[in-house]
Amino acid sequence: MINTTNVAGSQSRRWVVLAVMSCAHFMVLLDSTVVNVALPWLVEGLRFGATAQSWILDAYTLAFGGLLLLGSRAADIFGRRTVFLVGLALFTVASFGCGVASDPTQFIAARAAQGIGAALLAPAASSLVTVTFPAGNERNIAQGIWGGIGGLGATVGVVAGGLVVHLLGWRWAFYLNVPLGIAVGLAVFFIGAERSSSRRRAATQLSVASSVTITAGLLALVYTIVIVRSESWVSPVVLSSASVAILLFAAFVSIERKSAAPLLPRRMAADRYLLVAAISNFLVGAVQLSVLFLLSLQAQVTMHLDALRAGLSFLPMGVIAIAAAIAASRLVHRIGARPVYLTGTALGLVGLLMFAFQQESPSYVWALLVPSLLVGISLPTGNVVASIMGTKHAEHTDAGVVSGILAACLQIGSALGLAVTATIAAGGLRRGYLAIATFAVLSLINAAVGFRFPGDGLEHRRHDLRSGKTGM
Questions:
Q1: Nearest to 188 by CA among 125, 262, 142
Q2: Which residues, in sequence order, are CB contacts of 438 under 8 Å at separation 6+?
């Protein structure tokens, strides 16, 4: 076996690592989308009560969002490959558990276990990609492909979900993860193992107090966002949960300042690229899940398409998302992060406004196709640029926690964006789309102000030009 930190010496090996990690990334994204499609059949099959139904999605969201940061730091400390395999095994076994569940309690427990597995798997996979590729054009392209997989997973999930549920039943929406998880796990053994550095071994004295506090704080925050969908924003339970989250975050900051082994290394606090990228991911997440939610309503309620036809209507969006992600990664190398991010987000804003004012049009082209293509360009562009800039100055030993921060911001942004959008959209789809457009405007402002650092992603381009490389 080889050391993944030395994979840079073998170009072909790097792309094998990317392919295997992308399969795992695709599996997690596909599962999330398929569950949404299978929801009506699942509720009927296990006879979920009205109160318990929301926990089909919320149990996973709570575990995944709450444990992401802890899982990411564990990857840095105990080895990315090890944590990845543990997370993959748990996710695969839990998927089988969802498939064989005979009552709501068993199913919700299995969904929570899936979320825990994803919280270990996702940041470990992302950080493996980051440390495998050297900073510059190759890493940018790899992250572009990674971002494109996100668009593909979301789109294919809708189509595949409709086919699987109609032909095989809702349980197969979870059984499909089992052979895929086993195949990915076997493939990992062929891409090598990391060599534990002395720095990583020294980092094992991680602050337990910091870990427990931030995990509890994230759990409280995600729980607040989850229950706000069914409770008033000013209800006692929402206000209490939000207050607990704030107090825990304040305690975390206090503990970190005094800790000899902080969960988040102090050098990261001064990384402006990471701060701006984290805010960008939060806003991209707020747009991403919310727009898919409203698109599903528009296609099936306003345009009267069945689940399968609605899924097929989203395919162009998924295809262009892949192309946009790869193109964005190359353009950052050539012209810098700021113009790429601003252009992509502006196109998405135009698409959202088209959705808002043309969603009742009888024309599929103007009501759905054109605006979905614009949004399909925007979302992966924002995510890819944020990933490139967020990992720009990350040290090798911090790759996991940086990936975890970016992933946590995306996940929490998605949950909060959906909660806000669903509330506002109750008054009409147009209002919902305009609410999402507000997130896009904030994203534009953040990038315009934040991505104005010296170099802005062009340092490696200049180095390549001096070295006689074109990067294309």
A1: 125
A2: none
Virtual CA dihedral for 283, 289, 294, 299, nearest 10 degrees?
140
Q: What is the pLDDT of residues 378-436, one digit of tens each?
A: 988 998 999 888 888 777 777 778 888 898 898 888 888 888 898 898 888 999 999 99
Give me the DSSP letters along 144-156.
HHHHHHHHHHHHH
Q: Give residue-wise pLDDT tens across range 45-81.
A: 898 876 677 788 888 888 888 888 888 888 888 888 9
The reported pTM is 0.82
The mean pLDDT value for 240-252 works out to 94
Instruction: Measure the N-to-C terminal CA separation of the chain; round to a whole number of Å.
Output: 31
Cα torsion 337, 289, 212, 78: sign? negative
- Tell me how long the chain is: 472
Residue pair 432/305 in contact by the 8 Å Cβ criterion: no
Determine what percent of the chain falls in helix, strand and coil, rounding each to the nearest 5.
80, 0, 15
For residue 217, give the nearest of 266, 164, 255 by alpha carbon. Answer: 255
The one-letter amino acid at 4: T
The helix (run of H) or strand (run of E) holding residue 298 is none
Could you write out the DSSP letters of every residue in 348-397? Answer: HHHHHHHHHHHTT-S-HIIIIIHHHHHHHHHHHHHHHHHHHHHTTT--GG
Q: What's the DSSP call for residue 134?
A: P
Structure tokens at 62: 């709570």
